[in-house]
């Protein structure tokens, strides 16, 4: 049973799982609060197959700074390290 982390965490179960994997509180919260977080169930295509626009939209959802000046490769790197 997952703990209730309050209204600032939208998906408590996912937040706890990410924290158990060693992610920071802020990164786990960012991911757990993404509107479509956890819905794909690992069926998403690799970032290399996404369009630049799709990558940009995802970077915007997770609040990556400087995304408007990034090319496709930089967006992929930023999303993977975020």
UniProtKB/TrEMBL annotation:
Q: Where is the composition biased (Basic and acidic residues)?
A: 9-19, 64-75
What's a Pfam family this protein contains? DUF7218
InterPro entries tied to this protein? DUF7218 (IPR055642)
Q: Where is this region: Disordered?
A: 1-52, 63-82
Name of the protein this chain belongs to: Rho termination factor
Q: Which organism is it from?
A: Echinicola soli
């Amino acid at each position: 049973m997952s703990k209730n982390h309050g209204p600032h965490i939208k998906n408590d179960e996912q937040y706890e799982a990410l924290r158990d994997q060693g992610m920071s509180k802020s990164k786990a919260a960012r991911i757990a609060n993404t509107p479509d977080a956890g819905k794909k169930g690992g069926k998403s295509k690799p970032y290399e197959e996404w369009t630049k626009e799709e990558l940009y939209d995802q970077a915007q959802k997770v609040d990556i700074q400087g995304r408007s000046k990034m090319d496709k490769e930089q967006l992929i790197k930023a999303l993977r390290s975020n």
